[in-house]
Design brief:
Keywords: Hydrolase, Signal. One of its GO terms (biological process) is dodecyl sulfate metabolic process. GO terms for molecular function: hydroxyacylglutathione hydrolase activity; linear primary-alkylsulfatase activity; protein dimerization activity. The structure is a single chain. The chain folds into two domains: 285 residues, Metallo-beta-lactamase, Chain A; 87 residues, Serine Threonine Protein Phosphatase 5, Tetratricopeptide repeat (Alpha Horseshoe). It contains 15 helices and 13 strands. A seven-stranded mixed β-sheet has the order 1-2-3-4-5-6-7, covered by helices on one side. A six-stranded mixed β-sheet has the order 8-9-10-11-12-13, covered by helices on one side. The N terminus is likely disordered.
Length: 457
């Protein structure tokens, strides 16, 4: 099964193209929900046969795991988040082969791909393959782990109620995570930077180094079956070139180049790290070419804008996907976002400063809020403008004004909080980008429950 925009319906296509043209992931609430519900089909639980001896388990957790059947054993590619979900997938695999596991291959070190390995292991410990740089997936200083964990919960909507949850863009909303990482087994075979060609259980396998979403990523190529196992460098959504939970710079240019190398193989099937496999040489190869081009286009447009003296705020609203890529089902911004990518590329190449001397030493938030209030004619007038923006459903402006009001000594903090909560939920209802939607709703709930301090609100 492969979801296309025909699944979503012609009306949504028109709305989607208009939204993309405006650099937005916001549409009417009913349409946003329909789009997210359609994307849900990309991770319906089941086993997909992608070749005579290759099977992919989709929807048993957030990521995919695959089984390659050889002469005297099987090979597992990626192992989900923990042993419970991995065991469920393995049980489903066993309908196709009961041969022992001879090897486990990690495409990269994100936890949802490496945490369930023990569930696939019997009496004999298999070889476990990974890159030389395995373990460098996150690249963020552990000093910021406390706030990163909070943001992770928001991005994935881990604490949202069933009525609020939709999905995570490339994964179902509800996954069993209580045993996360408890089945991880460390690599025993290192794939060199030059790659590796070998035979395991009678199956010819090629390991290709392919940095992208992570620096330690590789993709797996089965030359006889023409099957490509892409890891998280490809899935059916515009890629998460920056994760709002907080990540170090993901080398966007390398990501594009790695996907281009995948396309050169002209696979008959591409198995993503998440979402349904794409089958058929024309479809699979075209998807990879388009994906690489989309990433490179966002990078090139951003660099041109930077060299023209434009700042990240301006570029985030100007950079768009090329017209011929806007309606590709695997490039809809369900997970990654073009504006987020632009800001990440800017910061990754130049750091935080946009080159404008006005922003070199900006006013402190409290002082700026007071000056904005003075400009509006006083705190009362600014508060009226905030409420007016909310009444007009100008939710982003209402949010920004609420953040000014909350800094004022004579401001109505309770009202500002209430406005912010309502505006966040208004934005969430219109989002088809799952991380944005989840973050808005999660933050609104934290504000409403009093979990956040006045500083963070």
């Amino acid at each position: 099964m492969h979801v296309t925009l025909k699944t979503i319906c012609p009306l949504l296509i028109a709305v989607l193209v208009a939204a993309v043209a405006n650099g937005q992931t916001q549409v009417e609430p009913k349409i946003a929900l329909k789009m997210l519900n359609a994307q849900q089909q990309q991770f319906e639980q089941g086993i997909v046969k992608v070749a005579d001896n290759v099977f992919t388990a989709v929807g048993f957790h957030g990521a995919n795991t695959s089984m390659i059947v050889g002469t005297d054993g099987v090979i597992i590619v990626d192992t989900l988040m923990g042993p419970t979900s991995a065991a469920n997938a393995f049980e489903a695999f066993r309908k196709y082969s009961d041969k022992p596991v001879k090897a486990i291959l990690y495409t990269h070190s994100h936890g949802d791909h490496i945490g369930g390995a023990s569930a696939f292991v019997g009496g004999e410990r298999p070889d476990i393959y990974a890159t030389e740089s395995f373990g460098s997936a996150e690249g963020v200083n552990k000093a910021v782990d406390p706030v990163k964990m909070k943001r992770n919960v928001r991005q994935f909507g881990r604490k949202l109620s069933p009525s609020e949850s939709t999905n995570r863009g490339v994964a179902p909303a509800n996954t069993y995570d209580s045993d996360r990482g408890k089945g991880h087994l460390p690599p025993t075979v290192t794939v060199p930077r030059s790659g590796l060609k070998t035979t395991i259980a009678g199956v010819e396998i090629e390991f290709h180094i392919g940095p992208g979403e992570t620096d330690d990523a590789m993709f797996i190529w089965l030359p006889k079956q023409k099957v490509l196992l892409a890891g998280d460098n490809f899935y059916s959504s515009f890629p998460n070139l920056y994760a709002i939970r907080g990540t170090a710079y993901r080398d966007v240019l390398s990501w594009s180049e790695s996907v281009a190398k995948m396309a050169e193989l002209e696979p008959h099937v591409v198995v993503p790290g998440h979402t349904m496999p794409i089958q058929g040489q024309e479809a699979a190869t075209a998807a990879l070419k388009d994906y690489s081009e989309a990433i490179r286009s966002v990078y090139d447009q951003t660099v041109r804008g930077i060299n023209a003296g434009k700042g990240p705020d301006q570029l985030a609203h100007e950079v768009k996907l090329p017209d011929h890529l806007k309606d590709k089902p695997y490039l809809i911004e369900f997970y990654g976002s073009v504006p987020h990518a632009v800001r990440a590329i800017y910061a990754g190449l130049l750091g935080w400063y946009d080159g404008n001397p006005t922003t070199l030493n900006p006013l402190a938030p409290k002082l700026k809020a007071q000056k904005i209030a003075d400009l509006a004619g006083g705190t009362e007038k600014l508060t009226e403008q905030m409420e007016s923006a909310l009444a007009k459903q100008d939710f982003q402006w209402a949010l920004e004004l609420a953040d000014h009001v909350k800094w004022l000594d004579d401001g109505d903090l309770k009202l500002a909080r209430k406005v912010k909560i309502t505006a966040l939920r208004g934005l969430a209802a219109r989002e088809y980008n799952a991380p944005n939607r989840n973050y808005y709703l999660s933050y609104a709930n934290e504000l409403e429950s009093g979990q956040l301090s006045e500083i963070w609100f």
